[in-house]
Fold this protein.
Amino acid sequence: MESSGDYILETRNLTKEFKGFVAVSDVNLRVKRGTIHALIGPNGAGKTTVFNLLTRFLPVTGGAIFYRGHDITHEKPAQVARRGIVRSFQISAVFPHLTVLENVRIALQRRLGTSFHFWKSERTLEVLNDQAHELLEAVGLREFADYVTVELPYGRKRALEIATTLAMDPELMLLDEPTQGMGHEDVDRVKELIKKVAANRTVLMVEHNMHVVSDISDVITVLARGSVLAEGSYGEVSGRPEVIEAYLGTAHA
Amino acid sequence: MKRIAMGWVALVIAGLIAPFLVYPVFVMKVLCFALFACAFNLLLGYTGLLSFGHAAFLGSAGYIAGHTIKVLGFPPELGILAGTATAAVLGYVFGSLAIRRSGIYFAMITLALAQMVFFLALQMPFTGGEDGLQGVPRGMLFGVIDLRETMNMYYFVFAVFMIGFWIIYRAVHSPFGQVLKAIRENEPRAISLGYAVDKYKLLAFVLSAALSGLAGATKTLVFQLASLTDVHWHMSGEVVLMTLLGGMGTVFGPVVGAAVVMTLQNYGAEIGEWVTVLTGAIFVVCVLAFRRGIVGELAALFPVRKP
Ligand SMILES: Nc1ncnc2c1ncn2[C@@H]1O[C@H](COP(=O)(O)OP(=O)(O)OP(=O)(O)O)[C@@H](O)[C@H]1O
Ligand SMILES: [Mg+2]
């Protein structure tokens, strides 16, 4: 095996079966530190399942996952998150009945080490407010800080999700379709945001919007029926006949 | 926030004058059940866990308090502490076993464990079986306050209630409470933010069980009796009813719910067995028409203005 120094995340023959159905099959993924790596593929290709395996939300059937050289294949999901792999979800993952500010603060508060302190006032969390406001500012949500999250429009909720993920200051950020269901303007804003936050971290994202993928990703891995079909830059990957076929194939199905 | 402050003031005033307006023993009963429902609400309303075995904590704490006071000669305050501690330990056992599952499985595990406690209460000699543990002396609180005096007893119960209520209020509005709400709102998200959610659920469960025990132990002192009624699964159902009726996930809802259910049972006793049907009907109407419960619906009628 060559040195894993350049790669923050590696999988070896990662496999997931659901009752005999192979959703992820022998995937060898290598994510280079400091890049934006896109994982694309038709519906049902297994992208979200890969995310669930990487973040340990699902147990693997076979293969191994290495994060910064550590074998994390059998760690607990919360433990993996604390190591610095933080994910977003394909379906908007916010805390709907908390305020926008509280959403971000939940991610920040674990660092205070008081999360089990049931005898302390929640006012002790206010020391985090400045930082939370800054994060909200970064995603254009500053003026929404005191809204109950459920009242935000969809695009804003996704932005809040990114702010919350950022609050963890993750080394590796996994974004599952961050622009899904958004209007043009929101898509551009989120795209710029991802580019900005990727300046000092690694991003692995699942994305269907090819403008976003071609504009900001350094490497693209194409997944189809659970296997890696192609890998390379957008230029390299997009012209390959098997990739086009995989996409057209499902379009016709 | 203002509204919460008003609620507190109203609660304290109501608690102070109630025994002059209503039969004090009845108010004490309401207070015990209100604390029980609030403790239950910490789990259901703020953590999103439906336990169907909370009678085990109420009842076992009652037996232990009764036994330590009557047989071992504990002073009332120590007897209550012993009952509360027992419920906490039992809560730890129940919690450790149940939180690995969610939803209906969680509820069923708590129910099954509570049935085991019921069986033990029926069989063990110190509980008095069907007759219950009778004639528990109220004794002298801290060696100075004579609890045989009804008013002394009342204000003691009121103080216990306020302390328990305050602990729950504090827990809900604490850094810990924030995490609980996050778990209730979106558990996978909370995990992905690095929270080992099972540990938080377990602590919530133990707190809830301990405070349910506090309510049960105090109740034993009020009625000088610990009986099977309090460990019966009916009681586990009743606390769900009180909490939903009053408004789960609201601070004052369970207090209102407990008061309504107790009033119905007490003053509706004239219609005999039919009171169960009446309570059931009210519950069905409430769940169908006022999903947020009494306090929840009132709060929704008068929303806090947006900042
Ligand atoms: N928990 C599960 N149990 C059984 N089958 C599953 C489970 N999760 C996913 N699958 C199946 O695995 C396959 C891959 O699903 P996955 O959600 O990973 O696809 P995806 O690439 O994320 O698709 P999309 O672009 O639609 O989000 C699908 O056929 C899906 O039905
Ligand atoms: Mg998906």
About this structure: Chain B is about 70% helix and 5% strand. The interface with chain A takes residues 170-171, 173-179, 181-182, 185-186, 188-197, 199-200, 203, 207, 306-307 of chain B (CB under 8 Å).
